[in-house]
Amino acid sequence: MSDSRVINFGAGPSALPDSVLDEAAKGLLNFKGTGIGIAEISHRSREFVEYLNELESLIRIQLDVPPTHKILFTQGGGTGQFSAVVLNLLARHRLLHPDLPNEGRTLDYVVTGSWSKKAVDEARRLGATVNIAADARKLSGSGKLFQEIPPHDAYTFSPDPVLIYYCENETVDGVQFSHKDSAPSSFPFHLLPKSTLLPLVADYSSSFMSRNIPRLADHAVIFAGAQKNIGPAGLTILIVRQDCIVDVDAAAKLGAIPVPITMSFKALADANSLYNTPSVLPIYIAGLVLQRSKELGGVQYYEELNRRKAQKLYDTLKEGEAKGVFRGKVKEGSGSWMNVVFDVLGEGAEARFLNGAEEQGLKGLKGHR
Ligand SMILES: Cc1ncc(COP(=O)(O)O)c(C=O)c1O
Questions:
Q1: Which of 127, 146, 186, 238 could in theory staple to 173 by disulfide, Cβ–Cβ 3.0 to 4.6 A?
Q2: 279-332 pLDDT, tens per residue?
Q3: Which of 291, 311, 344 is the last residue in one of the domains?
């Protein structure tokens, strides 16, 4: 691998292991001894279908996904799922409660940062009735900033919502739910309406496979784009509980919004994620990354590694705050393990910090615009 590579902190697309890229280069010429490169081979070939099944089991085993949930692969990114979860779960709700007026179909959103806010915007754009179950901005002095995960007493959930939505890690704002049940910044699972089939939806786009997913089995849908943690852009991973894979066309006949076929969880599930041509190259590279992850010890290995990295970084940030050179933007206890946001204080100091970092081969540190 070229020694001109730098340390790339880009949040996504983000760095991939050199060993994976070396292997991927071989696969581009010859995938699995077929004599055909991965970007050229039919997605319906035996070799590719086997590979896709292996990718499914690498995720299932490492995250301990139960048989109640399907793992699906699609395109359209996290943004595509902002729409798809609304449409599929509205269809489910319509089949469960065909006679309810539309105003009675409420979607609960927990807003902790700019990505969950975007998801709300899309739900509203699609005409859904939204209840903001909690809005972290209300906790900030200005009422505008996302600086913390709301405490448990700040949530109000609807009695029978179409979905309950949260973003586990807010990439831009650097805010993440704690995965310790007892922490005040954990997701308030105990406050959710009592039901065995909760329509709980989580955006794991920027923390997928970085540590365990608390209460995975209680989720209806978990989604993530590959490009932050497990591969190139172009692949979206879905973990969907089977009761959320519904006949969207039957629901449309009852008045639900028709679901575009590539967004239908059922169309995807019935075709084992091969309803149409999938993103073969990102699937291949994600498989290589997750095979490597398995060999290193799986998600538990990454959880421990990421815990130590976060500790080190937040300790340094604290030290810098005490010296007056940094200012953290997120309240203690709500800080992300994946994206740490802070200001560098002083006239021109941020530019000097970034230039200095670049000289050391550390790129992609500049925060979101
Ligand atoms: C938490 C989160 N959700 C959703 C998205 C949107 O993902 P995509 O660009 O794959 O549509 C991003 C992208 O950065 C993200 O960080």
A1: 146
A2: 999 999 999 999 999 999 999 999 999 999 999 999 999 999 999 999 999 999
A3: 291
